Amino acid sequence: MTAATHSTLFPQVPDSADAVLEGLDPEQREVATALHGPVCVLAGAGTGKTRAITHRIAYGVRAGILQPSSVLAVTFTNRAAGEMRGRLRRLGAAGVQARTFHSAALRQLQYFWPKAVGGSMPRLVDRKVQLVADAAAACRIRLDRGELRDVTGEIEWSKVTQTVPSDYALAAAKAGRETPRDPAEVAQVYAAYEDLKRDRAVIDFEDVLLLTVAVLQDRHDIADQVRAQYQHFVVDEYQDVSPLQQRLLDLWLGDRDNLCVVGDASQTIYSFTGATPDYLLDFRARHPGATVVKLVRDYRSTPQVVHLANGLLAQARGRAADNRLELVSQRPAGPEPVFTEYTDEPAEAEGAARRIRELLDSGVQASEIAVLFRTNAQSETYEQALADAGIPYQLRGAERFFDRPEVRKAGIALRGAARFGGNDSLLDEAVDLPSQVRAVLSGEGWTTTPPAGSGAVRERWESLAALVGLAQDFAAAQPGATLADLVAELDERANAQHAPTVQGVTLASLHSAKGLEWDVVFLVGVAEGMMPITYAKTDDQIEEERRLLYVGVTRARSHLHLSWALARSPGGRPSRRPSRFLDGLRRGPSAGAAGRAGGGAAGGVERGYSRGANGTVGGAAPRRTQRAPARCRVCGRTLTDAGEMKLMRCEDCPSDMDEGLYERLRDWRAVQARRSGQPAFCVFTDKTLMAIAEAAPDDDGELARIPGVGMRKLNRYGADVLAICAGQEPVGEEDGD
Which segments constitute the UvrD-like helicase ATP-binding domain (predicted)? Predict the structure, then answer.
């Protein structure tokens, strides 16, 4: 959730330029009023950098100093650009261009292509993986799926660092990159990829920047035309610029210096894509007369969260660390961060789900909770755990809100009701705007109570519920607003990609969580080998991993939970240890030592919870006994793979599964999934069904002993499963459930 969507009300547009400055702190006001010459804003996490730069633009526009059409604000994601446009609109500065580097370059390239090159512009491919695969095949180089992804990443890095195929091997070695194949082979695929693009008359996203740079370098008349249009530039997240993006920015500027950059070297987490904080750190050297403003007042996080974030950076090394900002929280005190150790990863996921259920039951909104992990591969375990606990969730990186089919259909229905509502019997009983919206959306699937489960049906309902909530806030902020007014607001928000809040716990990787914030954050998998990740070898790579954890910590407003598991799978060797980044930051005795002494626990060993009235540690969960190593029931080998542990045998050991029983269980599972609106794996995974079909349990006790069943699923599905195993009809189908 972004800061922009945290408040669901609709603020009034300031009535003057001076009113735009109201509510800014002294440093933010310095940013807002520094409208001439180069300006560098060093802004720590949660210090209101987007607020400062949008108020700067709006103040300049409202004061008549800046023309809206002459300002170009660039950032790195469509979401960030959309948020910036939304804020500028609410400040009365509509008309300012706020775009990503790629979007701004593509717009210029499309406009000038006929004049600069002639004919139609080549088709833009949005995914280059297939082209890379074809290029590798042309070189007779076989790439597996992982190598294909990594070689594609190497090509992207080469292009943003302006490295041609013939120079790739030397450049990769100089940058210390671990290449997925021999550098000569990567260079060969890269060269073939470029040839294929030319043969097929297509370009990729990196070409958009390269070609725009080429046009502006070679055609001075076109460069002059662009510079006449844009005279004032603002660059957000400046620590993430690549050499290619910096070259484009220099060409946009020409010999002028009306440039404002905003960034934080301690949040540089995309160096693998070619991003570098050097341009931010060298800004004063490149622009000796620059105004430099430091924002360190943290309005997002409590002193406890800020203290941990500062402690993380205090141990950092390198140039970015030498320029770190010491944050100062502006919020009241909150709870201490909680550190929890678990026996294995499934126990860690179950523990997080249990804590989240407690938070939801205490009144915390699901949209204010996030689970953040280092790699996307960790997501599935948490999806399963949340689904088992009946907790709705949303995956960060799914399609944008206004692109969802149910939202598009709802928009069409609302637009139709706004035009022809007088002839719609659905609206006869609707007395105000919120009731009109509820009436219209009831025809699209919205109901007053959410459906059970957390699958596609629940996700569709959550989208519609977000529109209902938006209508209520809109009506409260603008009494007398009509359905047509709301439709216009939705159109504006869709253009700005300013989505309303969707209820559901967010699951996201640390990289995709950048720029977002929540009241409660669970940082999971904070163990050596995952944080820092195993392939981080050099000092620079280790420090980037530290900064990534710093970004995760600073996403939390109030409650922060950090956890790790001693083993990957139940019964596995407990060989892991907490991340080195936590050394010296956890209060009290070593959580790791205490956890092992106690034999491991589902609730873990926690630090930071205040003691309740009864003297117990708040939120502590009962301990679990240490599980014995799982062994294959066929050959006796110790099992460590989660799938094999569910089957209680090695994958390649003989199976005595009843194929007919397995198919009946799959058919039954499909029915259950449709009824609950969940994915099939949320009922039982394939491996669990195979284990059931192999064991053919006769009673609850035998069924409960099968990994993946658990007490909750035993209570919900046990009778049906046992009936199917006995060759009978499921109980639920007999009683018409």
Answer: 22-302
